[in-house]
Automatic annotation (TrEMBL):
Taxonomic placement: Eukaryota, Metazoa, Chordata, Craniata, Vertebrata
Listed InterPro entries: TLC-dom, TLCD
Protein's organism: Gambusia affinis
The protein's name: TLC domain-containing protein
Keyword Transmembrane assigned: yes
One Pfam family hit: TRAM_LAG1_CLN8
Membrane topology (UniProt): Multi-pass membrane protein
Length: 304
């Protein structure tokens, strides 16, 4: 590892590209694994499943890697500006390569417009990580930022279970609790710790303003995502159907159309009833209604 470090430091750009290609290879290998039928039958779900599979590999790898580095070298937490080891530098190369791969996968498969939030997040991460790799500063800060990948494991599993329509399974409910815990502990906790460090050391930090603005943007995104997570998993306001992108699609148009049709049917029935009352005596009207009811097909279905 000591011999590899000078090569990585002298060519961080090519090192990132090599790591990106390795994640592409992982993407191809993961396609050999079995996929749920409901996912395989839909083009978007199939792409999303493959994309999340690679993301899961990255999260499990880098989250464990980052925690291990901090346990072995506790100075990482206090000397964010200049401390790093060969393993931590390599970790940032690997993670940057993943974000480059994932951004490319989203754009080249035509899902950029629907995933603009992820592209914005990836752009900020790639810029910060490349700055750390080229200047050899804030490597420890980038490593601490990867603590969020511990939560990403449960987030990715949550989305994959939704794609497989497994929201009623016991593993989904267990993961829901684990996801909430890891979100607060590793995602929000990490974001706020890095923000606190930048604010308290802003006066002497290199490009402190840029990193502070970036962290504040990240913090806003994380709080919004946390609100969405709580609202969806713990405080649902009404029954909704999960869309292919993990968000909720309400059927307001269907309901509106149904209600309108129902109103029209009621109006027509009222008008016809009024005409019958004018033309028939009560005995004839009762017989006519009985004949109509017995002939009506019982195939009524509400909106789905």
């Amino acid at each position: 590892m000591e011999a590899l470090l000078p090569v990585l430091k002298s060519h961080p750009g090519p090192a990132v590209l090599v790591c990106s290609l390795l994640f592409r290879v992982a993407h191809q290998l993961l396609q050999r694994l079995p996929v749920p039928t409901v996912v395989r039958q839909d083009a978007f779900r199939s792409w999303k499943w493959k994309n999340l599979s690679v993301s899961m590999v990255h999260s499990m790898l880098t989250g464990t890697w980052a925690l291990t580095c901090v346990v072995i070298w506790p100075e990482t937490l206090s000397n964010i500006h200049s401390f790093h080891t060969p393993l931590s530098y390599l970790l940032i190369c690997v993670s940057t390569g993943y974000f480059v791969h994932d951004a490319g996968d989203i754009i080249l498969t035509g899902h950029g417009r629907g995933s603009w939030e992820f592209l914005l997040h990836h752009a900020m991460v790639i810029w910060c990580f490349l700055y750390a790799l080229y200047t050899q500063l804030y490597i420890a800060g980038a490593l601490i930022a990867l603590f969020v990948e511990v939560n990403s494991v449960t987030l990715h599993l949550r989305l994959m279970l939704k794609l497989a329509n497994a929201q009623s399974s016991s593993i989904y409910h267990i993961n829901k609790i684990a996801n909430l815990f890891t979100y607060v502990m590793f995602r929000l906790g990490t974001q706020f710790y890095l923000t606190w460090y930048i604010v308290n050391n802003y006066s002497w930090m290199d490009h402190g303003g840029y990193f502070l603005v970036t962290m504040m943007m990240m913090n806003i995104m994380m709080v919004i995502y946390f609100y969405r997570l709580l609202r969806t998993d713990f405080f649902p306001r009404s029954k909704r159907y999960v869309g292919q992108n993990g968000t909720h699609n309400n059927n307001s148009k269907k309901i509106l159309t149904f209600k309108k049709s129902e109103f029209q049917l009621c109006s027509q029935g009222a008008e016809q009833g009024k005409m019958w009352e004018e033309r028939m005596n009560p005995g004839e009207l009762s017989q006519q209604l009985l004949r109509s009811l017995s002939a009506a097909p019982l195939n009524f279905r509400g909106s789905t």
